[in-house]
Amino acid sequence: MNILFLGDVVARSGREAVIADLPALQKEYAADFTVINGENAAHGKGITKKIYNQLIEAGADVITLGNHAFSKREILQDINSCPAMVRPANMEPLHAGSSCVIKECKGKRIAVINILGSAFMNSTGHPILVMEELLKGLEADIILVDLHAEASSEKILFARYFSEKVTAVLGTHTHVQTADETIINGCAFITDTGMCGPYDSVLGRDTGEVLARLLNDMSTYYKPATGRVVICGCLIEIDDETNRAVRITRIQKRPE
User: Model's pTM, two decimal places?
Assistant: First the structure.
């Protein structure tokens, strides 16, 4: 089985590119199942039900989130009507939405889990302890974790700790794709999958606005950059007999 994972979709330019290019990407990589991190899809922060539906209609099977999951307050009312959306398991409010979604593909039960790291995040529980609780009684053939975290060391530690219990640990949040993709005891891992968003930017944000804030101490509004888009993610190949990952391939489509 091939699972396609796309990193943080940022703002309109990022989501429009993903929606337009996803069918071709799925064909190119023979993807059987697709997961997209959509936590920055709405103007660079948060997501709405409308955007969730657009990504699902484009071909995504599951949408994961992150620390900006509830930046658009309307999603708190809509998230329970978005069955393929996964919110961080250790982020308030805990009552809204689901932190684990299980879907069937090619006769396999695939569990997709979303967890926040502890460093520089407003998490409500340590990711390792939260993950251990989620695994209790979880019945799935394949377990994929979107670990939305700032610290590289924390992501690596998490992956090594759970390498024999899950199928993939995919880092998100920093928007910068790392080149450390590897297989650990049959678990696919990469520190950060990167972003799908404006290429000429500062992590998807308008460069001029970032400079104004840092150099001139100006109070600025989060303004996403526009223009050319980079699409980043990875492909995880899973052995159909063992349900363990055998290969992880980085994907980075830079604008020409």
Answer: 0.96
